[in-house]
Every structure is written in structure tokens, then in C-alpha cells.
Write a structure and sequence with these properties.
single chain; about 170 residues; four-stranded mixed sheet; two-stranded parallel sheet; 6 strands
Length: about 170
């Protein structure tokens, strides 16, 4: 049985759980959702959830540095078990290339990738590590309950980035 080491951070007053394996970041829950949300991403797999601060502390520190504007990119490895479709992987990679403190509209992203807005939003919804793949840098996504992150969390994260990108500590 695969061990997933879990912990949580607070982002804009909302608890966000994350899981890691021996090899890297595995999953980041939607704000306000429980760690069990991982099961909806990794169907038909059994996990042993283990709280072990020693396994998760380096990720917690990276997240906190990012949330304080002291880190623009994460340096940890990822180890997610979802193989996105080639199209989803392309979307995740493109979103990961959006510079810190900058944004792009979902329409513009769709045009750049020659995909529909719905395809972009579906790929975003399927992303298991939304904080490491900075979905908050994509604007004008449909504000529906099934989004990985809510609009308040997106606004908060964009504000953190823009404040520090402008050097306003």
C-alpha cells in the first residue's frame, strides 16, 4: 500500500492539505476540502495516510516562503500519480511558464494553445498539484463550485505575487 504523508497549510484563512511521497509533492487539496479529496484524483488506489512532520516539513517551508513572497518557484520534486492527457500536460506546462506576478486570461491561454476555454478549464480541474502549477495566474475562469481553487484564494495568491514582484515588502 502506497504511503502518503500529509500536512496542511493555511491560505487566506482556508486549510489546504497536501500529500507527499518519498519522491515528491503528490497532491494539493482545494481550499477548505479535506485530505480525502486525493481519493477523487487517484481512483482505484489504496493509500496509507501518515502524518509525519519530518517527511512534510521541507514542503511546508517552501509553501510558506512562497506565501510570504520569498520564493517565486518551488524547488521540490513532484510525484503525482495522474497521467494527464497530452493536452492536459501541455496546459499544466504552459501555466507553469507564466512568470511570477503575471497573469493570463483563460481565453488568451486557449488561443495560444489552440484549444477551447472548456478544454483549458477541464485541464485545470484535473491538475493534482494546483499550487505548484500556479492555476491562480489564469484569469476569468468559470466561477463554479467544481473549480480546484475559489476566486478569493486566487485573488489572494495573485495579490501576494504582485506585491512582491513589485518589491513592495
Amino acid at each position: 500500500m502506497q504511503k502518503l504523508y500529509w500536512d496542511a497549510i493555511i491560505i487566506n484563512g482556508q486549510k489546504v492539505f497536501y500529500t507527499v511521497t518519498e519522491n515528491g509533492l503528490n497532491f494539493v487539496s482545494s481550499p477548505g476540502q479535506g485530505v480525502s479529496q486525493v481519493l477523487s484524483f487517484y481512483k482505484n488506489q489504496s493509500f496509507e495516510f501518515v502524518y509525519d512532520h519530518r517527511k512534510t516539513i521541507s514542503y511546508r517551508k517552501e509553501f510558506k516562503r512562497f506565501l510570504k513572497g520569498k520564493r517565486e518557484r518551488f524547488i521540490f520534486s513532484t510525484d503525482y500519480f495522474v497521467d494527464g492527457t497530452p493536452q492536459q500536460e501541455e496546459v499544466w506546462q504552459k501555466i507553469g511558464e507564466i512568470p511570477y506576478g503575471e497573469t493570463i486570461s483563460v481565453t488568451e491561454l486557449a488561443q495560444q494553445l489552440k484549444m477551447s476555454v472548456l478544454e483549458i478549464e477541464d485541464a485545470m480541474q484535473a491538475c493534482p498539484i494546483w499550487l505548484a502549477v500556479p492555476l491562480h495566474r489564469v484569469l476569468e475562469i468559470t466561477d463554479a463550485s467544481e473549480n480546484r481553487i475559489d476566486s478569493k484564494c486566487c485573488e489572494y495568491l495573485r495579490g501576494v505575487e504582485q506585491k512582491h514582484a513589485l518589491g513592495a515588502d
